[in-house]
């Protein structure tokens, strides 16, 4: 298996004999197991999956290339005992491991070493199967939104729109949602991660909607902002056009070999030049895959070089307390000479009468 081979190569380069994988998204990436209780031991020769009796049949159906161990009491304890029997001297573990579990690894007769983002770094580059599932997740999200779009008008509440969209996402085949749908109108739209309220849509409102779909465990993530006919239209149109230009500028920079900080800078420079630099507080994007927020990061802090077949969002925004906010978010697939925008809903400002 290519994925576990990559893990083994990374462990060998760090002088680590084996690794305990506990983050469920990483367990799924490496083994295809989609249940909620499982962990892995990957050593230089062994690939072992641990779960409890509830998932015995599911594991047999989903997993290939791993020895499967069922433990009814404590799968972490079973994994620790297996490490001992394999003679692993240095065990790597994910730095996200809960402290209580970390304490259990101490003084077990082998050295332990925390590892940050080893599997997550491998996950950044999507293979053909992952690209297909992500494209399906995008299509499901967009089909669901098109069903809801005609109902977005004055008088409907944020919660009504959110519930309707979540229902349509499931109708289109999403077995889970990447996050609760965000619908924020008026002054609420100035909160980047607002929760839908009972507030009803009014004239002059920005309506910011952020949602995503799912297919085979892979997610999509997108945002659109609409404007209801009303007061302060000139300024609100200006804000929208600023975000749209920032969005286009960032996409123009995406290509293999560029640093993600430059992608962020392209969007941020447009917004700053328009006088709204202090109104864009979050990063320009993030990776999307088995987790809706994963590597790479597209921000002014840290980041890395863009590589072919990375998938991440471009989502600049401007948020003004009391007035409202605008965010335009799409997913892009990085290529050698540019990128493909995976999401296809219109980005031009739409005014709801």
What does this protein look like?
The chain is of the alpha+beta class and 353 residues long. It has two domains: 2-123, 3-Layer(aba) Sandwich (Creatine Amidinohydrolase, Chain A, domain 1); 128-352, Creatine Amidinohydrolase (Alpha-Beta Complex). The protein has helices spanning 2-13, 24-31, 56-62, 75-86, 99-105, 118-123, 128-148, 158-171, 233-253, 260-273; strands spanning 18-21, 39-43, 47-51, 67-70, 90-94, 111-115, 182-185, 206-211, 214-215, 218-219, 222-228, 285-287, 294-298, 311-314, 317-320, 324-327, 330-335, 338-341, 351-352. The strands form six sheets. The chain has a six-stranded mixed β-sheet with strand order 4-3-2-1-5-6, with helices on both faces. A four-stranded mixed β-sheet has the order 7-8-11-19, with helices on both faces. A hairpin with a 3-residue loop joins β15 and β16 (324-327). It is elongated, with a radius of gyration of 23 Å. The chain starts with a helix and ends with a strand.
* Spatial order of strands in the largest sheet: 4-3-2-1-5-6
Low-confidence blocks of residues: none
Give the number of DSSP strands. 19
Number of domains: 2
Q: Report the CATH superfamily of the largest domain.
A: Creatinase/methionine aminopeptidase superfamily
The termini sit apart by 55 Å
SS-derived structural category: alpha+beta
**Number of DSSP helices?**
10
Rg value: 23 Å
| Largest sheet properties | 6 strands, mixed
User: What's the CATH topology name of the largest domain?
Assistant: Creatine Amidinohydrolase
Compute the average pLDDT. Answer: 96
Using the 3D structure, state the CATH architecture of the largest domain.
Alpha-Beta Complex
